Amino acid sequence: MRLDRLRNFALALKQTSVVKQWGECLVFKVAGKMFLILALDGEVIDGVVFKCTPEEFDELTEIDGIAQAPYCAKRMWVRVSDLDALPEKALQKRITCSYDLVVAKLSKKIQATLV
Q1: Tell me, what's the pLDDT at 70?
Q2: Residue 1: Cβ-neighbour burial (10 angstroms; 0-12, 13-18, 19+)
């Protein structure tokens, strides 16, 4: 059930698309840029990966069940392997922040289409 809620939450963000990549991963993108990965084991979430600031990275990785995301930019992406580590509302807030960080790096022209 949580998979459906997280998928629907992420897809509700403006101009978000989702593709299946790297085996069993749902990769959410805005304007072609990744902001969220849901690693799956069948229909169960095996991990959630999102972008964060370096300050948030330090805060988040102090929580059991959250670590640096493998294969992603150091100190900019975290992986939540234990979904109990963050309540659902806090996870949604982090996903929104990840989306905002990615949007901020897009060109002004593309950003204007997201308003």
Answers
A1: 84
A2: exposed
Q: What is the pLDDT of residue 3?
A: 82
Mean pLDDT rounded to a whole number for the chain? 89
Burial class for 78, CB neighbours closer than 10 Å (0-12, 13-18, 19+): buried
Give percent above pLDDT 70 in the chain.
98
Q: Please give the DSSP secondary-structure letter assigned to residue 13.
A: S
CA distances from 82 to 30, 51, 68, 105 (A): 26, 17, 13, 29
Scanning the structure block, which residue is given the tokens 């807030």? 93
**Please, what are the domains in the chain?**
2-113 (3.90.1150.30)
The residues, any chain, with a CB within 8 Å of residue 14's CB and separated by 6 or more, are 30, 114
pTM of the model: 0.90
